[in-house]
Design goal:
This protein is of the alpha+beta class. The chain is 45% helix and 19% strand. The strands form 2 sheets. Strands 2-1-3 form a 3-stranded antiparallel sheet. Strands 4-6-5 form a 3-stranded antiparallel sheet, sandwiched between helices. Helix 3 packs across helix 4. The chain is rod-shaped and about 80 Å long. It starts with 15 loop residues before the first strand and ends with a strand.
Amino acid sequence: MTHTCTNHEHTAETPRVYVASLADYNAGRLHGRWIDADQSADAIREQIAEMLAESKEPIAEEWAIHDYEGFGDLGLSEYEDIDKVAEAASLITEHGPVFASLLGYLGGTSSLDEARRYMEDGYRGEWDSLTDYAQELIEDCYSDTLKALPDFIRYHIDFERIANDMELSGDVFTFQVDGRVHVFDAHI
């Protein structure tokens, strides 16, 4: 089995795919290559072609993605479009695992444009909980009003219920990555 990475630096977080020759697979042999996916689609295709050319099978033209890593919660199919793989990997490298989770939440690589839009315009950040986000938002937006309230009222504001209402009403959506809650404005 051939394992080759690209000529740029690979890190543990770099999204990559293991692409296998289907002719070899059908002949009972494993022949493939790990390819860093955060590069141009043409560069990925070139490495796939090199891997196929190294096959011992006389006609090795078809390939499939048999494994992947660094894509977080995003699932890839065996026949995922290489242009979309490269674009998703680039955006995951740029934004981190939260983008992979967002893309998975929105339905996969077919939702790249929507995910990019949410990341750019709707991402509010990460907190320990949605309650922490709600409290920070209320305190930032209504600090003068809160200061004017007597302590017996201010200390009884239920930020957890406000957070719950924000999510249940569809104003925000969230998911967890590495134990942190990532908050997105649902109305962008």
